[in-house]
């Protein structure tokens, strides 16, 4: 969970007054690395607002994926990804969530060994 902006600001104010990263980190019980990241964030953006990470930027239409797999059962994941305009790992993840298996299985055969 991210620290509040108020807490971050208090921490940076303390650092600016004392000029010692280790002491400030110990006082506020955070790591030196966290404090360095907040200082860099303040320099880059001018704010201490938590950066949001991009996620789910590549949406795949589930029905289009099912249709493509039905039409091209031997297609590799990277080929499906090229068709859908996403990454192969996204295709693999969605195939797994849709419970679509891609393994080719041998037909079952009877055991031909003689019984004693």
Supply the key terms.
116 residues, mainly alpha, elongated, Homeodomain-like_sf, Transposase_14, Transposase
Structure in words:
It comes from Neisseria mucosa (strain ATCC 25996 / DSM 4631 / NCTC 10774 / M26). Pfam families: HTH_Tnp_IS630 (PF01710). This is Transposase. Residues 1-115 form the Transposase Synechocystis PCC domain. Helix 5 (77-84) crosses helix 6. The protein has 116 residues and is an all-alpha fold. Among the domains are: 5-45; 62-97. It has helices spanning 5-18, 21-28, 32-45, 62-71, 77-84, 88-97.
Structural class given helices, strands, pairing? Answer: mainly alpha
What would the principal axes of the Cα set say about the shape? elongated
> What summary fits the major beta sheet?
none
Radius of gyration: 27 Å
Q: State which percent range the strand residues make up.
A: under 5%
Low-confidence stretches: none
Domain Transposase Synechocystis PCC: 1-115
Pfam families: HTH_Tnp_IS630
Protein name: Transposase
Organism: Neisseria mucosa (strain ATCC 25996 / DSM 4631 / NCTC 10774 / M26)
Secondary structure topology:
Layout: H1 5-18, H2 21-28, H3 32-45, H4 62-71, H5 77-84, H6 88-97
Helix pairs in contact: 1-2, 2-3, 5-6
Short structural summary:
The protein has 116 residues and is mainly alpha-helical.
